[in-house]
Design goal:
homohexamer, about 325 residues, alpha/beta, 11 helices, CE7 (chains A, B, C, D, E, F), Cephalosporin-C deacetylase (chains A, B, C, D, E, F), AXE1_dom (chains A, B, C, D, E, F), AB_hydrolase_fold (chains A, B, C, D, E, F)
């Protein structure tokens, strides 16, 4: 691990021009409107986890296209009117097991752990239970980054972000949740999704965004040779005439454009030796964030960032923000 | 490269028991019947390749589910009533460019080079132009090997094999083709597809099967740590309770079961240092092949097998078989 | 990942001869007796974790040589007379953070998470807080496997196992713990330590031993080229005349010899594609276990074994064993 | 793959000073004069390829030192007075098989595919049939880059470039070839050879130079750690006092010096993520090219550059240039 | 290998600010004073090497804390009043065998080859015979770089440098040695130790410092991802709040601070493609060296630097300096 | 490193059938006779090494084809009628520097360190000074293993072994050498050369053969994927029809056939974890050795074998054998 990206002083100032399509807001409005034609249909099936301190609900709801999306609803046993964290998952992973997600409920929060459609079948520590029935009209590189990438309407993350927005609605419907105190959170891909969702859903009250992926694609594909950004490079190297279409599509999904619409308090983290989500791409999002914000810099870490240490900071932050005692 | 698998003498005798579902034939009959409810709709659009000796047609037809499948129809300029080779592509690749496929037409054969749906966006020398609109109801590992693998009906290769069978019909409709002299051919995944198609389509007259993939899955996933068989291992390692379902699904697609239905003359090749499609899995198919057969053994090669040398042998073989002068 | 070790049928029968020194029991008796001359001095300092469902105590006690050993005592808020799990950590890691260890307390158990001395400064997700003041009189390979390996008295794991045994005493002193219901548990190195502790401490009532390390050293160093067993090979390759001394030392620490002294119900797990702790070395321990036992086989996994899935099985098992409702 | 070299704007302007020996032209005049004392002795033996559209001649001629050089002469069946492409091969490869080289003849060109002496015995897809009888008076690193590198007279590429120039003469003698329409072409090493040959042979009429190797050695050995430029670094690291001699030798072979003598229309290509022939070394040649020129930039590709796509552009270009209909 | 660091012109000027604690000299005075409370107790046991030209003594002396340190004393047979080279060893290695160290005695010098405590059990060509009994109060990353790194008093290199200083005293006591002509020497870690010892021991008369390690830690950990500097990065990444303590500790051991106290003639070497001890860190030491100095630049080498060629230069240099005929 | 080859008991019995051409002896007689038509022309130029205990001669002699071969003659200062070791070098290396070869002279032996033609330009610690002017009539893989491999007359090692045999004559001519006490020695390739030379030269009196290369080629290319045996596999994979010719050529050079002609006392060594020269190939030579013999087994080492430890054993052995006091 080395300090391969800009020095920290420059990172703190790095605010690259955004490439935003004129119909960005219209695109997302239409997307979410379309989705809302499907009944949300949240189903909280009690799950027999061998746990006493937490009640677990195997949750299903209708995401983009009405497709069934799986999640775990975790509620501190006996809790009511609880603040809730909607959490999204890092790339390759799924919702895993309830016992993987005990931090929030042990700290007094409800939590909804949301599958990322199609993912969760390659990482033995993080299985998923949700498919992405939409395969796309185009060839794609292995992984999800380029599924449908030639058309914003078909792009994989259009469905994922829509699922994520609707998950906030799902959380709000749970009887134990105080719908006025919902935060979104995630690491890496999960951070990218949280960043987008905080911009897209008016009822989100806070965002916890760790080493976010899906942000400043153009720079990312030029400076890092690590996965998963390289999926895009492989696609461009093979589908040789598509760069304009690809970057046009990505402009509807770039975290910088969502960050510029951020309203709520955001807590970011970044790692200076992160070759997967290079620090300049993270600061590109953070520096554009329009709302209240703070960022924790982990100077000696790679993509693991602050790990549990960041989680502890988030707990303190969110308890303060949501007046949890 | 080493001789890591069985010695050649044992390979020549290796004929493992097949795991064949009782409704194997019914499954495929139903699958192809369903497919035939979609009009084949072959479209041969003349393609302006800067070539004089070969006429190229950018071809589209309706594959499984009526989905548009792309192919190149290559015809020696001015040829008529030509024997035709329907060729399938190796894993990760697509139909590429017409100039990648000049061997058959220069040797006096028409050739139909068929895209593998969804593939062809990661290998810069082999671009594809066909999507796989069916994403599947389940999580999947990156790549195509585990898309829909929990259900034979949804498994990716059900669609691919169906496309392949229909491609033979497409070739037969072309005015320059003698429908009575159609061969199927392919290397690796392409060899696996050819092996299946030769068993599934009654009008195929010959099969050229090089270092075939998709054969004897059970042994492959146990003895090689190379891609792409490892996609299945990763899936099984993550989706921990699915092994029975996975192997049941694969039993409908295992090359051994198609080989046992082989009727036409088959020319196989195998490489003894092939870690990707281990020689015992190739011989598992070959030794079960029910028709006339021969196999070329490349003792010092890896998965590249005989390369162009095998192509030359195939040209001689096919010219003899199809009485081409 | 491949099935590189024996087939499962042979593994189930594999019970290699043990190399046990005549004074094995005397060695350990003397070691523990010596240790008991140091006051245990358990200190449970309340730790301000931002958690509501669990009370955390930053714990210190006097381990081997009276050295301070750090641990986390985790108690379900308000719990009393609780069964307790003493958990040991995998190689390279330390006790980490309290939020890394919420499973047992959320399920109604107290848990003591014990640092492994000297480790925990290379794995960003698992920091330790305990030193190993004893450097040893000999040169050593990087890592801990060969520290003091030329002399059983000086060998690193003599101190580690002693710390582990005393940790059980520590747990028993905590007011919330029912000293009659203490289990030991661990994965990999942690499993090896649990296996030893269950044999060495008469008050342990159950053992949960996952993909254990430190077992059947002789075979391990001959068949796997992965870390950390290779530390021993590097040592032997460099310190060329020491093999007899090294294996004599290891005979006092080999998991097979502890397993043969196992009295309590043991729940093992093993992964058939585990190149780090090869399945034959795990079965070597399991098949020698003298007490009641069961083993879960994960056929498609590497060293991650069953992961959280195994944790769930353990919860059910231990709740039954310890009559937790 | 990343954009590791200069940004495109700087690449377009990058025209480093050339290190050219005063007797550069004299050296090459003498070299070619010496070579011409050997009778060219072109032998076009009809080769029984199983092809109908192309006639193949297994060709041998006397190269540098009168050594026998092998090539494939490919002629569209029945063609006469054809324009001809003399094609050189990439590093590690040989002329391969006739079926590897069907593009030019299928497009109406004769083609002479020229072995690179000594190469073609390590790459299974590209076998050679020509030795380099001159081993050199010095130690050499594996590979061909440093054979004879301490003396321009003995340097390997002196022989190779001479073979290449004489191959143009060979093509001109073939009855089917129009000697007034001969182009040279090649990829990587082949591009470097074509670049040199176009400068050295007065009758060449066009040059197709893809991602050329053997150009701007000094920069190449300083910025890329990939083969084969690293052969030179290894030599310099071992033969510690030879840098001056080595770079003096290379100055007689540097593509920049040939490019500065380019007269004919040249079509270059470059890939911006090419770690093997870094883009700045390619532009160093291109920007020095003295004749008419154009360059295709492949921004997302590595050393594969444009692949078949570039071949299609070349076909269009050459058909226009040579008035092929 | 590439020129990854600054260009040579900038390296020659690179003289970064030093981070030197106010009590640097006091720290070392106290350390060495403390050490001197232990009797040096040099023991030169004649060693039966099967050599005639050199007499070998298996040497032991009391290093830091009175710990026994092993060394080889090599004396040209029959030599008296000889100049002597005290040589330190590269990271991972130990004193090895007498036959590994014949250069100095064959050239007319006595030589003392000093073990580095704790090292020498992982590199088969360089075994050590000395332990480091002090394990440290903290967790550490594998290897020696971070043992005790949270406290200057406990840091591993405090003991090593003290051993090294006392080794000079040991050499001076040998009857065959002229105590007025003692040089220190070493490569990599050995160079770093020699650099420190030359500053700490007033009787050293010359220093031979090759590609020194342990110099300009701050830059090293930021620009190279190679071992062993990465041990520090891993520690910092895991022990997340310790950076200030770590760099404070390192400031007592940084080669730049010793170089600034260099009085005697120093002969350095540096390699421009050295990724292990980057050239800027070497020049950081060299440019701060306060005494007479010269440096040999190996432009095409990695960490092997000049190898035996540098040894020859050193022989000439030292024979001149010490008036050896 | 693992025990990947046969168990030691089987290795001790492993004596595979030899593939020996009928004219093996005639081939070598003719080869050496031919060579002897060139005057040996040994030239011992005094070399100004800065050494006092050893006199060094930069030696040149006429090897195969009369080509100049370089060597270092090392003589203990003032020695006369000395036994002499003729030493050959491992693959990739050359004679290096005189200071690399001080063991024999310091122990009272003269030593002739012989370059391996063409090698010594890739390994910075072992430079060579000798070219191999014979490049061969065939394509070759990088490295020397396949140069001329299609014809025994042209094979590279025919020249190397001839050089080696003549080097023994060279040593015998030196005034300080007792021609009746000459041994040959070498490690890896050097061991293979020594093994051959001991069989080919009647005046050799002893052989020291460490982890020999060039022995039992057939098995080696089948069981190890490491260099340099893989050069042969790459050749065979590319030059597809040459296996019979290749193995016929190798049968003239296989160490087993030389071993079967061994007359003098041989001291072998073998390492059980040697992936480069697998132990079964070493024992294949050793078990065929016809003369007196002993072998040292290094059970935990890779190709480094016994390293300096083996050198010490050889010194004792040779001093005894040659009555050196």
């Amino acid at each position: 691990m080395t300090l391969f990206d800009m020095p920290l002083e420059r990172l703190r100032e790095y605010r690259p021009e955004r490439d935003e399509p004129a119909d960005f807001d219209a695109f997302w409005k239409q997307t979410l409107d379309e989705a809302s034609t499907h009944d949300l249909a949240p189903d909280f099936a009690p799950h027999d986890a061998p746990l006493t301190g937490v009640q677990v609900y195997d949750t299903t709801f209708a995401g983009w296209g009405g497709h069934p999306i799986r999640a775990w609803m975790m509620v501190p046993t006996g809790g009511t009117r609880l603040p809730c964290v909607v959490q999204y998952i890092g790339y390759t992973g799924g919702r895993g097991l309830p016992i993987d997600h005990l931090v929030w409920p042990t700290a007094g929060f409800a939590a909804l752990i949301v599958d990322t459609r199609g993912q969760g079948a390659e990482n033995p520590s993080s299985a998923g239970a949700t498919g992405d029935p939409h395969g796309g009209d185009f060839a794609q590189a292995p992984g999800m980054m380029t599924r449908g990438i030639l058309d914003p309407e078909q792009y994989y993350y259009r469905r994922v972000f829509t699922d994520a927005v609707r998950a906030v609605d799902v959380a709000a419907t749970h009887p134990a949740v105080d719908a006025g105190r919902i935060a979104v959170a995630g690491i890496s891909q999960g951070g990218g999704i949280a960043q987008a969702t905080a911009a897209l859903h008016p009822d989100v009250k806070a965002a916890l965004i760790d080493v976010p992926f899906l942000t400043h694609f153009r720079r990312a594909v030029e400076i890092t040779d690590r996965e998963p950004y390289q999926e895009i490079v492989r696609f461009l190297a093979t589908q040789r005439d598509t760069a304009d279409r690809v970057f046009r599509t990505l402009s509807y999904f770039d975290g910088m454009n969502f960050a510029a619409r951020g309203r709520v308090p955001a807590m970011y983290s970044v790692a200076l030796m992160d070759f997967i989500c290079p620090p300049s791409t993270v600061f590109a999002g953070y520096n554009h964030w329009a709302g209240q914000k703070e960022i924790t810099v982990w100077p000696w870490n790679g993509h693991e960032g602050g790990g549990g240490r960041q989680r502890e900071l988030q707990l303190h932050h969110l308890r303060r923000l949501f007046s949890v005692v």
